[in-house]
Design a protein that fits this description.
Length: 141
Amino acid sequence: MICESATEVRKEWSAVCDTVSREKPVFIKRTRDRFLLSDIRFIEELLKSYSFSAACFKEKNGSVTISLNEIDLVENGKDEAEARLNMGKALIEYAQEYYENYSLYSNAPNRRPHIPYVFKALMIDDPKVIGEGIRCRAGKN
């Protein structure tokens, strides 16, 4: 792997930041640790292929329940638009909690696969945009 030493990166911090923002991500090595320094556009590109999908259930009372496939979240609303918005809010809330407790959550076998979805939600940071982007399929009650 092509790695810059952490010592050199510290010495040339401004130049490294310019490289990352204008040219390419930079791999950094510090003793046994390895890092990737990138700009947000790079991460957005990496996460493009990740999308949210859900089962959508029409309830007897006319409300709609959405059950997310990627993360165990379920939200309800008076209609699908409200349920999607509620899911967007719930996803952002979960993503913030996950990030705040990252060392715990990312090491839990049942939560580790959530990492790309958590970062995608944190980067979008808009419940409406997240909700509208959920691919819904009809669920069976």
